[in-house]
Structures are given as C-alpha cells and as structure tokens.
UniProtKB/TrEMBL annotation:
GO terms for molecular function: glyoxylate reductase (NADPH) activity; hydroxypyruvate reductase [NAD(P)H] activity; NAD binding. Pfam families: 2-Hacid_dh, 2-Hacid_dh_C. This is Glyoxylate/hydroxypyruvate reductase B. InterPro entries: D-isomer_2-hydroxyacid_DH, D-isomer_2_OHA_DH_cat_dom, D-isomer_DH_NAD-bd, NAD(P)-bd_dom_sf. Belongs to the D-isomer specific 2-hydroxyacid dehydrogenase family. GhrB subfamily. It catalyses: (R)-glycerate + NAD(+) = 3-hydroxypyruvate + NADH + H(+); (R)-glycerate + NADP(+) = 3-hydroxypyruvate + NADPH + H(+); glycolate + NADP(+) = glyoxylate + NADPH + H(+). Signal peptide: none annotated.
Length: 321
C-alpha cells in the first residue's frame, strides 16, 4: 500500500507506517502543491496524508475516488468537502484531542503578550528605543481576577480556561449551543448568551470550528458590543473574524487589543497594519507546533491510515461511512 504525504511528517507517525510495511512518499519541496499536482500525485497512491492547506473539494474527490482514506494532520476539517466525501464513499479522518493543550497554550501566550504589549516592547529594543523611562508610558493591563469569555468551550477552550483560572483567578463565562457541565463543575464556568459574552468579557477567546454560520462572525457589529478594554483572541480559524473590521475596531479604540494565531488570508502580508499596533500580537499559525504535539498528531493520523488498510473501524472519522 502506498501513501502520499503533502509535507514531511513527524518521525513517530512515519515510523509507525513504515514498520507496518507501508510505503510513504513525502512532498519535500519548499512550496505548496497546486490542485492539479495534488490530483496527479494522488492518482498514483492508495491514501493521502494531508498536512498542507490544500482544499479537498468535489472535483479532487471525483478524480481520486480510489483513495482508501484521506487522513488529515489537523483537527479542523473545514478545507474538506465532507458531504462530497460521503457521497463518493471516501473516508476522511482528523486528529482531535492531542493538540488541545498546545493550542490552548498558544492562546494563553497571545493573551499575556497582548496584555503586556510584549511584541511591541520587543520591537522597541530592536529599533534602539530602550532609553528614557517614564512611569506612565506604554503600560499594559493586569489579568488578575478579570473575566475570560470563551466562544466554543470544547477541549481547547476548556484547557485555556483552566490555565486562566489557575494563573490569574479569572472568572469564566462561555457561549455554546449546549452546556459544558464538566467546565461548570471544575471551573465554575457560567454559560451565557452571545450578547452577554460580548458585553462581559475582558478577554474573549475563540475556540469554535469554522462553519458557514461562524464565518465572519466577529465583525464591526460584534466588536462594537465588546468592552473598550477587551482583548480579542483567535486561535481557531482566521475566517471567523473580519480582519478589516478588526483593524478598524483597534484603530478606533472600540476594543483594546487582539492576539491572533490565525489570519485571513494566510499567510498575512508583512505590511498588514495589525503588525505595527502596540496592543496586537500575531503568530504564524503555530498552535500545535511543538515536537510532542506534532508527533502525537502524526501517530494518530498513522493509526487512522492503518485502520483503513486493515478494514477496522476508523478511530477519528469525520465522514459518516
């Protein structure tokens, strides 16, 4: 059995596949595959291990309907036409759970970096601006006892909330379709309406999936309902916030700061005004980028592939087959 991987994958998952006697070909060029190139490659293989941002649409699936599995090296699967995969009976899997802590840590890092203007002060040193000190200049804000709002309190949001409660004694409110009873019991989290989440959060952290309903959700109207002192954090998907509206909200003082690990589009252009704002911290989508987490993700993807080849139930299927 032959597998095509769209990137060089972490060694733990690769070794698991190779020990099982499977042949893995990895894309090693420092550029992304075009849609046509991906189709051409996959037509020569039995499985796809998708570790890139290629979109898996119906056109791709119809030309690669022979694939036994498409294993994503990610928890998000918004780049896959799952309905088309179901229609064509091509199973798709993801890697949930194992990246929750690393992604939550990134959200926590962004929150603290924004609150203390860390990226801004680092740039001051680079440009030789660490000289005259003033007690009232370039101050950040405290997080102790503030209110953390979570939009989408699942695995990642739960870990983020735990970090904030432990470190800063923050109060936790959240907005979900349903209750998260575990978070309510463990952290004293309170489920509120979306409007209350906006009005009460000192830090609002987004941890929901990208869907047609959540696309562009954080726009001018939504930012206008947040506190002028609020920090907006997004480590989920860049398309959940309207970037132009976010820039305007920050420039006009509608909200205080923002921390982003995801942007729209990605990659962000180096002349984006967000990068020069004192109360903004932007990272290049590194939420799961630790040695341990990426290895765990690769092992999970490998186990999904092995299950497909062995005819056993897929551990992490997002299709309904």
């Amino acid at each position: 059995m032959k597998i095509f991987a769209t990137r060089v994958i972490p060694p733990d998952g690769l070794e698991l596949l190779q020990r099982a006697g499977l042949t893995v070909t990895q894309w090693t060029e420092k550029r992304g595959l075009s849609a046509a190139e991906l189709i051409a490659h996959c037509q020569q293989y039995d499985a796809l291990l998708l570790a890139s941002d290629n979109h898996i649409d119906r056109a791709f699936l119809e030309q690669c309907r022979h694939l036994k599995i498409i294993a994503l090296l990610s928890v998000g699967y918004d780049k896959v036409d799952v309905a088309a995969a179901n229609d064509l009976r091509i199973p798709v899997t993801n890697t949930p759970g194992v990246l929750s802590a690393a992604t939550a840590d990134t959200a926590f890092l962004l929150m603290l970096s924004v609150a203390r203007k860390a990226f801004f002060h680092y740039k001051r040193i680079l440009r030789g601006d660490w000289n005259f000190s003033e007690p009232t200049a370039n101050l950040g804000i405290d997080l102790e006892g503030k209110t953390l709002g979570i939009w989408g309190l699942g695995n990642i949001g739960h870990v983020m909330a735990k970090r904030c409660v432990s470190a800063f004694g923050m109060k936790v409110i959240y907005h979900n379709r349903g209750r998260n009873e575990a978070a309510e019991k463990e952290l004293g989290a309170v489920r509120v309406s979306f409007e209350a989440l906006l009005a009460q959060s000192d830090v609002l952290s987004v941890h929901t999936a990208l869907t047609p309903e959540t696309t562009g959700m954080f726009n001018k109207a939504v930012f206008s309902q947040m506190k002028p002192s609020a920090i907006f954090i997004n480590t989920a998907r860049g398309a959940i916030h309207n970037e132009g509206d976010l820039i305007a909200a920050l420039q006009q003082g509608v909200i205080w700061g923002a921390g982003l690990d995801v942007t729209n589009p990605e990659p962000m252009q180096p002349d984006n005004p967000l990068l020069d704002m004192p109360t903004v911290a932007v990272l290049p989508h590194i939420g799961s980028a630790t040695v341990e987490t990426r290895n765990a993700m690769s092992v999970m993807a490998a186990k999904n592939i092995l299950a497909a080849f062995n005819g056993t139930p897929l551990p992490n299927q997002v299709t309904s087959l």
